[in-house]
Amino acid sequence: MSLLVRKVVLASGSPYRAQILRDVGVDFAVIVSDVDESLHPMGEPVAYARALATRKAQAVAQKVGVGKLVIAADTICAIDHDIIGKPEDEDDAKRMIARSCDSGLQRVITGVCVVDTNTGDQFTLDETSLVEMAPANEDKIAEYVASGEPMGKCGALCIESGQSFVKSWKGSYANIMGLPIEQLLPLLFRLDV
């Protein structure tokens, strides 16, 4: 039995986001947004993540009927005010990981947008977690990149498989995985009536 009465649509193909929703008992369908992320100009990191999540949610909300809650999210990493996106290739992944480890600290920011297809109302939120990075040499980075794990991940790191690059983290672990469920779930409960 689902935790929510209303139908939920996850506008993401992320297995991590799907697992987080499953773990808290939310039944959902998946419709991946076709929003081209490369066309969105990068700006201030939190505003960027929220804006891209909103574009994804709006795109999927137009495809589904009434009665749905459409959830979209965008997770980015930021060092200072620079957005570190997903790597384009292995060399880019190596560069991203080296920069993160050299900086010592990065922010993992997730913007979330929920669209209520009954009313067209949009609700946005964001969460920031801090990740303290451990030093890493080129061989260790190259070995990790060769595993394929960094591809498609913001900052070229997967928190589960990249633990050796992480000293510690503060904030929401679910946010680091891509969906700040601690903020999202109360919003879904409120909209479920």
Q: How would you describe this structure to a colleague?
A:
The chain is 34% helix and 26% strand. The chain has helices spanning 15-23, 45-61, 90-103, 138-146, 173-177, 181-191, and strands at 7-10, 29-30, 68-79, 82-84, 105-116, 122-133, 166-170. With 193 residues, it is of the alpha/beta class. The mean pLDDT is 91. It has six helices and seven strands. It has one domain (7-191): Maf protein, CATH 3.90.950.10. Helix 3 (90-103) crosses helix 4 (138-146). Strands 1, 2, 3, 4, 5, 6 and 7 form a seven-stranded mixed sheet that branches.
Tell me the number of structural domains.
1
Count helical runs: 6
- Strand residue percentage: 25-35%
- What is the overall pLDDT average? 91
The main sheet comes to:
7 strands, mixed
Structural class, please?
Answer: alpha/beta
The string of secondary-structure elements, in order, is EHEHEEHEEHEHH
Tally of extended strands? 7
Q: C-alpha Rg, in Å? A: 17 Å
CATH-defined fold name = Maf protein
CATH class: Alpha Beta
Weakly predicted, low-confidence segments: none
- What percentage of residues falls in helices of 4 or more residues? 25-40%
> Ends: how far apart?
17 Å
**Which architecture name does CATH use?**
Alpha-Beta Complex
| General shape | elongated
